[in-house]
Amino acid sequence: MAASFLGLETMVEKPHALFASDFQETANAVMDKFLSARNVTLASLTSQERVALIGEMDDAGVFAIRNSMNYVCELLSVSRATVYKYLRRTRSALSD
C-alpha cells in the first residue's frame, strides 16, 4: 500500500552476482526459454530436443554446480543415466 502511494510499483530485478549459483533458477529459465522459442511443451519434446535442452543447460553452467543433476532429473522426469547420456551426446557433438 505504501509502495503504491510512493509510486514504487515497479519490480526490481535480482542482481545477477548474488544469484549466480542458483542452478534451479537458471535451469528453469533455460527450460522456459527453450520451450517458448519452439512453442512446445516439456511432455512433447522429442529425444533430440531433450538433448538440445540439456546442451543449453550445460552451456548455462547448470551442471557445474553440485547437486544440480538431481534437480534437472526431477524437472525433466528422467533418470540420471538419461541426463548423463544426453550430456555425452551434446558434448561429443561439440567436439566433432
Keywords:
single chain, 5 helices
At a glance:
This protein is mainly alpha-helical. 61% of the residues lie in helices and 0% in strands.
What would you note in describing this structure?
This protein is mostly helical. It has one domain. It has five helices and no strands. It has helices at residues 2-6, 23-38, 47-59, 68-76, 80-95. The longest helix is centred in the N-terminal third of the chain and has 16 residues, at 23-38. The chain is globular, with a radius of gyration of 17 Å. The model has no long low-confidence stretch (mean pLDDT 85).
Strand content: under 5%
* Low-confidence blocks of residues: none
Number of domains: 1
Helicity range of the residues?
55-70%
Number of E-state strands: 0
- Please state the oligomeric state of the protein chains shown: single chain
Largest sheet: none
- Terminal CA distance reads 58 Å
List the helices and strands in order.
Answer: HHHHH
Q: Tell me the structural class.
A: mainly alpha
Tell me the Rg in angstroms: 17 Å
What average pLDDT do the residues reach? 85
Which term fits the overall shape? globular
Task: Work out the helix count.
Answer: 5
Give the secondary structure arrangement, pairings included.
Blueprint: H1 2-6, H2 23-38, H3 47-59, H4 68-76, H5 80-95
Helix pairs in contact: 2-4, 3-5
